[in-house]
Each structure stands twice: as structure tokens, then as C-alpha cells.
Fold:
Amino acid sequence: MVFTTRNPYNSERLNTYETHSDKEVEHIIANAHQTFLRFKNKKPESRVVKMQNVADILIKNKLKYAQQITLEMGKPISQSLAEIEKCAWVCSYYAEHAPELLKPNYIAAESESYISYEPLGVILGIMPWNYPFWQVFRVIAPNIMLGNSVAIKHAPNTLGCAEMISEIIAEAGFADFTYNHLIIEEQQTEAIIANPFVKGVTLTGSTKAGSAVAQIAGKHIKKSVLELGGNNALVVFDDADINKSVDICVNARFQNTGQSCIAGKRLLIHHKIYKQFVALLIDKIKKLKIGDPRENDTYISVLAREDLAQHLKHQLDISIDLGAKLLFGGNQQGTYFQPTLIESTSLDVPVFKEETFGPLLAIHSFETEDEAIQIINQSEYGLGASIFTKDRERFQNMCWQIEDGAVVMNDMVKSHPKLPFGGTKRSGYGRELGKEGIIEFANIKTIVIHST
Structure:
């Protein structure tokens, strides 16, 4: 089979890529395993310089890499540059901190006891298109520093980005087959997970894809980490800084043209400030610069594929039919979807109940703290929530009751190399980043020494 990549902004054909045969995949995985065997017993310190080389290469060539992201999935260039800079950040973080994070943990139990964190083998990563560099590097950096080899199945519409990542890892000085770029069809995935050299699988993608991969991993008794969909809530209380909250909420929903699992998709506004907040929100949305993603001042551009825009329009239309009120936007043509604000008195419409992957923000009013918590938790997703208030005690009280993987006060939910990232419920399980991320695919070995 051949994959063809296209520029979503103008439909220009970019390149074609032939898939790897099953035999080629087996060869790659076998070699990745051999590389793992050669380097698994070397300490993380031996990989520090090479991982920092990766960070340096990313910064040195960030415009080239950012342009490739923009070309293949339509991300505005300023945001593509930010993505590359964040990749360099996570590589530098693990280059600096992995030796400390992976030190044996001595426990006062029996005689001499400690926990050792050791690599497992080849880890398969199944990656999305919306952050074609960042999603990959937050798998690469911790796992390679731990001592695992990594094989990545990239999204078929961002294979040019995938090739560049391969070149970066090689240029940094890592051994052949430390990092492996697989061009495969979905049906080849099960055989890869079943391969005895593959010790775990991590997927970032849809809940449907995560469920399928988890079933396969479970069948073969392989560790899995799933970072899936989200329907994050933004909750604004009447004591919040309104202007600042509007700015953050707009950015939380519309950056990357709304194509983010952690985007704020449900906006809950306290009834006392509802009209004022909505008026400011519409004014802010109207001022977003829409256009060619290659232009430095463009904030909103196109979605990565036309079918994604069509699906979002379908969710919008059904919601309007069920009584939701369109306040702004709503137009769709090809891969373009106009930034949209929709008001719903019902919480059981697609734009509020489902994940919306694009520049559409659903709003709803609330009166009490308990009501806000109930609305947040009724979602089948559990990735993150943002609470806007000046009352720290209120925030702490809500944190204990919110079921999500992250809760943030007066800011949008975002990933940070030092902090574990992941969700609950249908948003998946397991954690990336931080110490929790680097030991997800480690053999957490208990060692007890008794003197004779």
C-alpha cells in the first residue's frame, strides 16, 4: 500500500510513502531488540550527551521542522515553532534529570532493600497527527533515556515529520535501531504487539483506537499506556479576573485550530457574569487572525483533513436541531471550519457531551460550586479541568471532587516535562512525562539483600 500526504490548506499533493511489509517490520523489530540488548545495562548517564544533542538539533533547525508540521497538518507556523521548542525542552529535561529519576530507591523494609528501575525492551508507540513532533518526543525522550528501544507508527498524513525525526535521532549519535520509524497499515499493528521483542505499547489517539489496542495488548499480556480523547471543562466563577479568563479560555479552545485532546471544550460560566463574559468572548473570537498557516500572524487555519471538518459540522448541526443556540460562526467549507461559539441549556447534545476536535466552544451557565462539579464529572472523559477563581480554598475543595487526571487554577491544562500527564475514564490510563512517565515502561524490580 502507498500513503499519500497532502497539504490541508490547498490540497497540494506532497509525497508518497510505501508501507513496510510484514517481513520488513519483523526485521526492524528484531534489530531494535538487538540494540536494546547491547545498551540495556549501560547507565542513563551514557545517553545524556546524545539526548542533549537531540535538543540542540531541534533548536538549530526549528524553522525547517516547524514548516514541515505546517505543511502536512496545517498548524499555524508560530504554533509549529512552539511545538519544536517544547520537544527540545523535554529532551533537555530528561537528559538532565533521567540519571536522578532512575536512581535506585532504598526502602527501610528488610535488611537492605531497594527498588531498581530497568528497561524492558522494544516499546511500540502509535502516534497521532495533531502534534506530530511533540507526541513522539514525549515517548522517545524518557524511553531512550531509560534504555528501551522505540518503534513508532506515525499517522499517515504526517510521514514527512516522521522521516525528519528519524534523521534527528541518527544525527544525535544514537545507535541504529534505537529509534525506528514504521510505515504500516492498521491491520499490521496486532502482529507487532504480539512480537515477543515488543514489551509494551503506548497510544495517543481516539478512544476507539485506544480500546482496540488495549484489547490486543491485554490478549498478549503487554503493558499499555493510553492517552485518548478529552472533553475538558473550563469553569469561570464570578470572582475571577474576567478579561484574563476570557483570553485564557480562547487560547485553551482555539490553539492548534482546536485540534487538541486537552483543549477546553466545555465552558461553564457563573450566571452572575454570564452575559458580560459571553460578550467579551465573542469579541475576542472575532479578532482571531484566520488564514494561511504559513503566515506568522495566523492564529486559526484549517483542520488537518476534510472529514474532520465535516464531522464537526455534523455534531454542530445535530446540536442545533436539539435546541442549542449558535452564537457565532458555524460555517464549514472543505478543511476550513469557522471559529464557533454555541450555547446549550441541555448537557445532552453532541457539542457538550462528545469530544469536539476543532474550533468549536460550547458554553453553559451554572449557579453553585456543587453544580459545576457535577457537570464536570458527568463527562465520560477525564483528562483535565480548569477552574478560574480567586478563592484558593474553593479550588482545593473542588480538586478533591473532580475525577480528572489534572486540575489547574486560573490557567489552561497543558503538559509539562516535569509533571505526569494522563487521564481517567475514557481518556485512558497510565502517565507520560515526569518520573511517572519514565518508569511506565520500566521493570520496577524489588531487590532485598540479607547478610549471611
